[in-house]
């Protein structure tokens, strides 16, 4: 079955930020799809990727992320 994780993001202010965060998430092994919502400051990530690896990739790109409960 498909898995998805949601993250709360910080530091994004424009559409180019969205593209950077999506690129960072998509670089993580196991990610199938990343949908970043600028207005809601969220990322919905499908695939069997590690949440910690996703957060690390977003942080390395210069943004903040935490797993949404
Ligand atoms: Mo937009 Mo985001 O000009 O770091 S790329 S603010």
Automatic annotation (TrEMBL):
HMA domain residues: 3-66
Highest rank taxon of the organism: Bacteria
Localisation per UniProt entry: Cell membrane
Similarity comment text for this entry: Belongs to the cation transport ATPase (P-type) (TC 3.A.3) family. Type IB subfamily.
Protein name: Copper-exporting P-type ATPase
Annotated source species: Photobacterium sanctipauli
Residues of the full protein shown: 233 to 301 of 984
